[in-house]
Amino acid sequence: MTIDSIWIPILCYHRVCPVRERGQDSPSLCVTPEQFSKQMLLLKVFGYQPITVQNLTAILEDRKLPPKKAVCITFDDGYKDNYLYAFPILKRFSYPATIFLVTHNIGLKNFWDSGSLSLLNFNEIEEMSFKGIQFGSHTASHLDLSQADEVLIKKELEISKKKIEEITSRLDISFCYPYSRLNPLAKELVKEAGFICGFAGDEGAMEQKQDLFQLMRIQIFPSTSLFGFWKKLQPWYPKWMRYQKELRKKYKN
Ligand SMILES: [Zn+2]
């Protein structure tokens, strides 16, 4: 594989918590601590090296050489269970990860994804930030950028970026599109706002260097088996995912 065709899997998680605490909200977004722990161990056993989103960006911009088998771990929404259950496991493996926060809701509950789940508070964020976890913006109010006008988008990007800068004392902040929804205008505004990159859902360039503001991520579900997890790390996986999508479209009727 040449440097140009590098593929770094970017894993996308939401919640990590035991089944008994899962509740009725978004069960499809919640892996158990046991599953998460086994997945992190698999990364170690198979020689994967989790990197920060700042390093990912540097590699994709040719400012840094990629380590062998780099992988990036991300969490959307900033749920409190990330602190309670994912953080101890990440610490045990000394893995970096990035959590995308909805800055108006820090210390409160979510209102998206039909839930009222507890979110991280400032103390938890500070402790995690001190111990190797990065934080990025998921807007100020989980705004669907594909539906909002330019003025509102700009405001949400500016407010949330400033807040994350304050919390982390860093200027190299990444962004993640709520609901994985975006359009060319939203993408342009995220770039203009000074974010280092933008994370999307399972749509994005197959060649990551081509578009740092729509980086495709690999979703990890409670139904993902360990073998399934391993498959999702492979460089051929995005092509396989796209092929399956095309098949579904073609044979839908
Ligand atoms: Zn979200």
Radius of gyration: 17 Å
How many individual β-strands?
10
CATH architecture descriptor name: Alpha-Beta Barrel
User: How many domains would you count in the coordinates?
Assistant: 1
Small-molecule components bound: zinc ion
CATH superfamily: Glycoside hydrolase/deacetylase
- The stretches of 5 or more residues where confidence is low (pLDDT under 50) are none
- CATH topology term: TIM Barrel
First and last CA, distance = 38 Å
Rounded mean pLDDT score:
94
Helical coverage, percent range: 25-40%
- In terms of DSSP E residues, the strand content is 5-15%
Which structural category do the helix and sheet elements fall into? alpha/beta
Name the helix and strand elements from N-terminus to C-terminus, one letter apiece: EEHEHEHEHEHEHEHEEHH
Notes on the protein architecture:
The termini are far apart. The protein is α/β, with parallel strands linked by helices. 38% of the residues lie in helices and 14% in strands. The protein has 9 helices and 10 strands. Strands 1, 4, 5, 6, 7 and 10 form a 6-stranded parallel β-sheet that branches. The mean pLDDT is 94. The protein has helices at residues 19-22, 33-45, 53-60, 80-93, 122-130, 150-168, 184-192, 226-232, 237-250, and strands at 10-13, 15-16, 30-31, 49-51, 70-77, 97-101, 133-137, 175-176, 198-199, 218-219. The protein has a single domain (7-250), classed as Glycoside hydrolase/deacetylase (TIM Barrel). Zinc ion (ZN) binds at residues 76-77, 138, 142, 178.
